[in-house]
Write a structure and sequence with these properties.
Layout lengths: L1 H18 L3 H15 L13 H11 L6 E5 L5 H10 L2 E6 L2 H13 L6 E5 L12 E4 L3 H14 L5 E5 L7 E6 L3 E5 L1
Parallel strand pairs: 1-2, 1-4, 2-3, 4-5
Antiparallel strand pairs: 5-7, 6-7
Helix pairs in contact: 1-2, 3-4
The chain binds S-adenosylmethionine.
């Protein structure tokens, strides 16, 4: 939903800026809109998971320091940062959009989490997930369907998959919170 609000705000911002001849500002609004939406067909557009949802997920999973938590399409890094800060676990965020990748990288550096949190600028479909013990996704139904094949090949027995809003069908559903957070065990 946030993506829709931001798209409307950036579009109006661009129109108003061009109307009053603020060309640079107008171009910035257009670029922000492109950055928000261009990843739609690659997995999902940007839409941040609410922090209270992240807290519910982490409360349920209670990651150990030995866990390796992945966020496929980590956006601004909120999930991996929260997991590592609160539980001391290792975390990997994969993000294809350069702006969000740099925002996450900056946040990780400013919070001195570099030794625990790795941020990767890549397409998660091409990134190996073999060391993951927890995988979080907030994507789309189509992306989840494509990921099922990858997960079956790369994830080890006992790995948790958590999906916000969209289900997986090929894995063992072990818990559902608020009808929108789905937990699976490989
Ligand atoms: C719905 S947002 C979720 C962001 C973040 N996981 C969160 O929970 O706040 C999806 C994110 O996945 C990224 N993304 C989409 N397809 C991707 C792909 N194939 N590889 C890497 N990142 C991708 C988008 O750029 C976007 O930031």
């Amino acid at each position: 939903m946030v993506w829709l609000i931001l798209t409307v705000v950036f579009t109006i911002g661009a129109f108003v800026s061009f109307f009053y001849n603020f060309w640079v500002l107008g171009i910035i609004f257009v670029l922000l809109n492109i950055s928000l939406l261009w990843t739609w067909k690659l997995g999902a557009a940007w839409d941040p998971t609410p922090m209270e949802v992240i807290e519910k997920i982490l409360d349920y999973l209670n990651p150990k320091q030995s866990d390796v938590v992945y966020d496929l399409g980590c956006g601004d890094g909120r999930f991996i940062i929260e997991a590592s800060r609160r539980y001391g676990c290792r975390a990997v965020g994969i993000e294809i959009d350069p702006l969000r990748y740099f925002i996450t990288l900056l946040r990780v550096k400013l919070l001195h989490l570099d030794d625990k949190v790795k941020v990767v600028w890549a397409n998660f479909f091409n990134y190996p997930l073999n060391d993951a013990t927890i995988v979080f996704c907030f994507l789309t139904e189509e992306a989840n369907r494509k990921l099922e094949i990858k997960f079956s090949k790369e994830l080890s027995y006992g790995t948790f998959i958590v999906s916000y809003l969209w289900r997986f069908y090929g894995f063992n559903l072990v818990n559902v919170i608020d009808d929108k957070i789905f937990f699976y065990l490989v």
